[in-house]
Amino acid sequence: MTKAKQVIRILVADDHAIFRDGLRKLLEAADEIQIVGEASNGNECVKMLAKLKPDILLLDLRMPEKDGLGVLEEVNFETLPTRVIVLTAAEDDRDVVRAMRLGARGVVLKQSASDLLVKSIRKVFDGEIWLDNRMTAEVIDAFKKSAESGQRREKPLLSDREKEIVQLVAQGFRNREIGEKLFISEQTVKNHLHNIFDKLGVSDRLELALYAIHHRLIDQA
Questions:
Q1: Which of 63, 132, 168, 171 is the most exposed place for a label (fewest CB within 10 A)?
Q2: What is the pLDDT of residues 138-189, one digit of tens each?
Q3: How high is the pLDDT of residue 153?
Q4: Residue 149 φ then ψ, to 5°
């Protein structure tokens, strides 16, 4: 008997009704995707996040009352099961990099093919990072600049426990979830991350995930 796919519950936040309507029709054609809510501005989005607790938030960066970056700044996504994919038509890479630093797990250009959006949702839902090909180079370049001010070891000496934590961070797990999987406290996870950041010369979880993927640390179980 075939196991049924898990339904991915999605909240869409975009101020253009026509775009939301087209997005809903596109996504609901996929069996495992369910649109549970639509917000037309940032304030509505914040309220609906707390109420609906969706799996994925498709978040427009340009919205009235409160933009996408404002939503990311206000909401503590550590307390929600929600992973964020930013939708943008803009070419301003600074906003994209900032969104990723604020916790977004994916970026999709609005002009991308529809099948790429569906694929990005599935990937981010599974804990992966998703970036448009052009954005990937820009984001990594931005993180390199911040890393150049410090020393980064080419062959960092990570303990087996630290390697486990790096892999789980790269897979999108939060500190509490990592602690539960490894049977250690959340504070112990934070202590390990502090040491890992210091050893690798990275400044945050996203940079750690990108570094781990680039250097294949996630394969060093």
A1: 171
A2: 666 665 555 555 544 444 578 889 988 988 888 778 899 999 999 999 999 9
A3: 47
A4: -75, -15
Please tell me the CATH code under which domain 151-219 is placed.
1.10.10.10
Q: Which two tokens stand for residue 19?
A: 């775009």
Of the pLDDT bands very low, low, confident and very high (cuts 50, 70, 90), residue 217 is low
Class of domain 8-144: alpha beta
163: number of CA atoms within 13 Å, CB side?
13
Q: Are 15 and 58 in contact (CB under 8 A)?
A: no
**68: number of Cβ within 10 Å:** 26
The C-alpha atoms of residue 126 and residue 187 are separated, in whole angstroms, by: 25
- Residue 29 DSSP one-character state: T
Length of the chain: 221
CA atoms within 13 A on the CB side of 103: 22
With CA atoms as reference, report the closest residue to 33 among 19, 23, 47: 23
Question: What pTM did the predictor assign?
Answer: 0.71
CA distance 153 to 142: 19
> Which residues make Cβ contacts (< 8 Å) with residue 182, sequence separation at least 6?
161, 164, 165, 168, 189
